[in-house]
Amino acid sequence: MMLINRLKSTSFLILTLIFVVSSSFRGFSQSKEIGGGISSFNYTGDLVRTYNLANQTIGGHIFYSKTFKKGWSSKLMLAAGRIKGSDQGKSVDALSSARNYSFNEFNTEVSFQVQYEFLDFRNDRAIADFTPYIGFGAGFFLINRADKNATYSDIQLMLPLSIGIKYNFSPLWTIHFEFAGRKTFYDYLDNISEEEITDKRNSTFQFDNWNDNDWYYFAGLAISYTFWQVDCPVPLSK
């Protein structure tokens, strides 16, 4: 309970900080975007220690983004797709291979990020029509799992850290490619931790290193439509 309260407090502080930062700037012109596209999820944790393309899955996402200062934007995103992993293939060790455990669960997430664009690619006089960017934020993900190996909440906090490229192929349309790691704060994304499991041959194996929290990863390709808003200057009082 103490850990859950701490995570809630941490997420509240992070979201408050992001909101304050994004609200403290006012540019002369602002843009708002809505978009969506395909996404892919991957995982590293107790079953898979390194990024493995064999565990890549397909999903989808939609988002709303707002530019609040030159080079800075905020992004609210909803994404969904499956996350999977297996002891087979690139096993951690011989015991993991013999354990023969796997999972394949549906994941839904909501995240809020602040992004920084390195190039002013939206300007008519811009030297490039694309820009690399980085982002950070906070969010929650939901995996509604029936056969839990321990007691834990279905909703968990995660911190997204992203890099990507935006390509503005017209004044109103933009292509986005993003890759992001999702830092989680629990060790049951794969439904295993320091517990033990009995395989089909009734042999008991240690599940994993319980000191490590799991990560999952998001890769997305999307297209967005831009709505421009120009702030008119306030007339001087006589």
Automatic annotation (TrEMBL):
<dbReference type="InterPro" id="IPR011250">
    <property type="entry name" value="OMP/PagP_B-barrel"/>
</dbReference>
<dbReference type="Pfam" id="PF19573">
    <property type="entry name" value="DUF6089"/>
</dbReference>
<protein>
    <submittedName>
        <fullName>Outer membrane beta-barrel protein</fullName>
    </submittedName>
</protein>
<dbReference type="InterPro" id="IPR045743">
    <property type="entry name" value="DUF6089"/>
</dbReference>
<feature type="domain" description="DUF6089">
    <location>
        <begin position="14"/>
        <end position="232"/>
    </location>
</feature>
